[in-house]
Design brief:
Three copies of one chain form a homotrimer.
Chain A (H helix, E strand, L loop, with lengths): L2 E8 L4 E2 L3 E3 L12 E6 L9 E6 L3 E6 L5 E7 L2 E3 L32 E6 L6 E2 L5 E3 L12 E7 L4 E11 L5 E11 L4 E10 L5 E11 L9 E3 L2 E6 L2 H5 L17 E7 L6 E7 L6 E7 L5 E8 L6 E8 L6 H6 L4 E3 L4 E11 L2 H15 L5 E2 L11
Parallel strand pairs in A: 18-26
Antiparallel strand pairs in A: 1-2, 1-12, 3-4, 4-5, 5-6, 6-7, 7-8, 9-16, 10-11, 12-13, 13-14, 14-15, 15-25, 16-23, 16-24, 17-20, 18-19, 19-22, 20-21, 21-25, 22-23
Chain lengths: 388, 388, 388
């Protein structure tokens, strides 16, 4: 038995590990070349943020238990994958005014490669009839620290896993628990996320989830393309209509660029499995997101090719719904219902491609899913899909 | 002289003790079997919360200087007294959005056995004419850290005390200081709180205080009863009217149960001293709260027998007023006025009963206070008592 | 080369120094008698606040990197200069609800000798059309921690400098960076601030800055006077009109005193250099603020001679504008525009005077700037200067 585990945080048991370094010498089995480190960041906006960094020898990535198990950045062969946010993060949740009256405080902490939006809501701010904030932008889960964190290594298979448990709760209101496991294997250019969301209330609950997965340079450059098996694509608003003809390709950076957002329904195999690709202009690099349309039926493409100083970035965002205000999405029935004590799982894979052959292979897989089906391209925002 | 003191925190003097363990070997005198520990919690929502745990050999309890000197939990003969909140606390104040627009952020930190509501207000959220939050639910004091903390042991008498000083201040607005001392004696099943509230402003001030004292299993079970010398009991709203016939007994847990709240005036001795009891269905265990009606003239009973996953709990809540919005209570004159520099003291005792004889004794004492007086049972919310 | 540097914080490099003591033995060169210390405060509202204390042998002062490089207090010859706020700070930003709906949360952290107001706005709270907070009182910069902090000593010249970099950013919104350096020389009764504000966005930006420099006893006492080369002085509102005849002198403390605020335009030399003085009643002590009117064209005098328990204090506040709501100031054009990538510098000197001769010298310098020009004294609030 070559699986070894380390508990980093377990608040119920009073366990908290300040620093940890795991290397092959610590684990039985033949796997080699990997390293796992845990530290707590100090200073600035990051003071107190726990970071677990996994390096499988090829792909490295940093997990943020303090920020709802988000992925801060990844590195492939030593090169950083992610994007340059003007926000100097990772930002500790105590310095992010998520509940400020305008509901946009979430933006103060936004610099991750992968940040979860949810769990009670995942979209634009929503207000009650008196104008008070009811649901903040992108929800609360990214600014909730995990109370349980564990890493494990299987020295035989080379599988490395980081698991964290995060709760989004309010007395009298929802009680939702996220158990997130990110897994990779030694030497692979791939990581896998399995999230389990549990309603631990005695009453039924609803939740929403959206994975806000963000890339800038080097994967995003002028001429980069988004490739997906598209059933439907619809511009979110008039601003998105302006860019409809080039909805799936990317322009050079333009200072003051105003974001363009497209809502998609993807095609999938009969098992619901599907995938999307972002590739650079030369087709020499890319990243695929593999997902299950039964779990994540809605896909949002966020284009923000503004000046690099302001965050030249695109977001590939599979979700349970579109990131409209919670009330609107509820009216459309785009929420996940969970019976008391029920759980639901969501799976997601990120694959990084480092040469034209790998990129082409990913494109072929998408072409096979597209088959003869012609994509339906909306020429204006659709009622029911797009909140006015 | 067998009294020994330890300063745990004194920000003005730059004193802060990370960890402390006090045992009988550290103090002169014959008292034995006790232990005091101080630690700072790490990880999750509790990161940075100071906890002082006192074990008198029979009763143990945990004080939270970081959360306004609240009592987190108690243990009698090793068994936990308190309740199971869905909130995984104790929660650090920096992660509790007390001032969020809807005013309900306090609920994100609610998991204590005893939490103080106050000092500027202690009731439901209150808004100004433009709809902006003026007073948040239950006030700010529970999310203010103490700047001075001290523990002391009298090795002769066996008295153990924890004192903390917490300020609720805002420049241009109120300057209120709480000096709270919780005391117990070796071997007793009892703890005593003396709170002194000071207006350290040069101008007159008003304050409110309510002790939100919460019990779930094992003291609360189906058939548990609340026993008190009642002058008057009034249902807070229509929801409470529904349960009027069983206002002082408890149902089994019911998922989705909506809270029921009753406002009481108690009877007391001529000196103002009075007491209430919560006992389990079998009458084998209970807890008494001893108080002074001159200090705490209003008593609120909160029944929340929802699913245990959501917090099966009752709150026994002696206060200076009823927890209505601040404006309403002010109109009724239910605030405490303090001249510049003036202080006022509030005393409270919690006694835990572990067998039928003790429970019966507590009931007898209450029966004596009730005497021949018949309780006035309101059949609907009263104007002046209940905000509409 | 006798300049030695210590990096205290550099989040990008993972550098964070918990404690530091620098004394002459650590640096080449003949300077002597100084000390620099860095520590992180623990407990109460201050938990986690970094403080850098510089003692040049005559003047000492404490810099707060965690609070936007504010100056907490100063000490001259061992005597404290500053004021006694009822707020027990320095307060960690995570406990200051800057973005609360009413916009006054900033007051919870207000206890510094010098606190910067800015950078997006620096005045009274401002609300959008729906009543939601758009700009909080005095802006966000004082509650943003520096991500880079450095101290340096020139052992030859005796110059000591503390530099910090603080960003006020929000994704999709402004990206402003403050690089602040406070400098002093061994033995001098003077400190110098150079702030550089950079717009690191790819789009144009606007900013505001106001230095809220606050004094109580011993510099402020009954009969103290504010001396300045005045072109114009205008009462902010009716309350200030009441005190117009004594606008530049100070009353004894009066409990419940309501603040009086005056807006000034100063006279200056042709190079824009000008200065103001606060002196005590006997003229035996004082403090001068030297500034450049080209950088800081607007000057606000805040009189708050309330009970000392509530903060007997005056604020001398040079700014880029008057601290009215942001929208009003924008309409008057009182904002600083910065092209993409542009920077602007602001210089400020504080000189402490310890005897009548020094005070007189400062007054003479101001008299020279005043020359024959008669001050224009407004007898009511001016449209365009004062928001109604």
């Amino acid at each position: 038995m070559a699986v070894k585990k380390w508990t980093l945080t377990d608040t119920a048991a009073g366990v908290y590990v300040d620093e940890l370094v795991v290397s092959p010498g610590d684990v039985e089995g033949g796997s080699d070349g990997y390293e796992i480190t845990k530290k707590t960041l100090r200073g600035g906006l990051s003071d107190g943020v726990d970071m677990v960094r996994v390096n499988n020898g090829n792909l490295a990535f940093a997990v943020l238990p303090t920020r709802g198990m988000g992925l801060w950045k990844a590195w492939l062969g030593g090169e950083e994958i992610g994007w340059q946010s003007p926000v100097r993060g990772p930002v500790h949740p105590s310095l992010v005014p998520v509940m400020e009256p305008g509901g946009l405080g979430w933006l103060d902490g936004f610099d991750e490669l992968l940040v979860r939006c949810g769990l009670e809501n995942n979209g634009a701010p929503d207000f009650d009839e008196s104008g008070k904030l009811a649901y903040p932008l992108h929800g609360r889960i990214a600014n909730r620290p995990a109370h349980q964190v564990e890493v494990s290594v299987d020295g035989d298979s080379g599988e490395i896993a980081v698991t964290g448990v995060v709760e989004e709760t309010r007395f009298h209101f929802s009680k939702l628990r996220l158990t997130s496991t990110v897994t990779t294997k030694v030497g692979e250019a791939r990581l896998q996320i399995r999230d389990v969301v549990e309603n631990f209330s005695g009453s039924p609950a609803e939740f929403q989830m959206l994975y806000h997965i963000n890339f800038g340079q080097p994967l995003l450059d002028p001429g980069s393309r988004f490739v997906a098996p598209v059933k439907t694509v619809v511009p979110r608003n008039e601003r998105a209509v302006e860019g409809m003809e080039t909805w799936n390709s990317y322009a050079p950076e333009v200072a003051g660029y105003s974001e363009q957002v497209y809502f998609l329904e993807l095609l999938s195999g009969e098992d619901g499995k599907t995938r999307t690709l972002l590739k650079n202009a030369e087709g020499t690099r890319g990243v695929s997101i593999l997902l299950d349309k039964n779990q994540l039926p809605c896909y949002t493409l966020w284009k923000n090719t503004t000046a690099s100083a302001d965050g030249y970035v695109t977001g590939l965002e599979p979700g349970t719904n579109f990131p409209n205000p919670r009330t609107f999405e509820g009216q459309q029935g785009r929420v996940v219902r969970l019976a008391p004590g029920a759980t639901t799982a969501i799976d997601l894979v990120l694959e990084f491609h480092k040469d034209p052959a790998e990129v082409e292979q990913a494109e072929d897989a998408i072409a096979a899913l597209q088959g003869d089906t012609e994509a339906e391209i909306g020429d204006e925002p659709w009622e029911g899909w797009c909140a006015s």
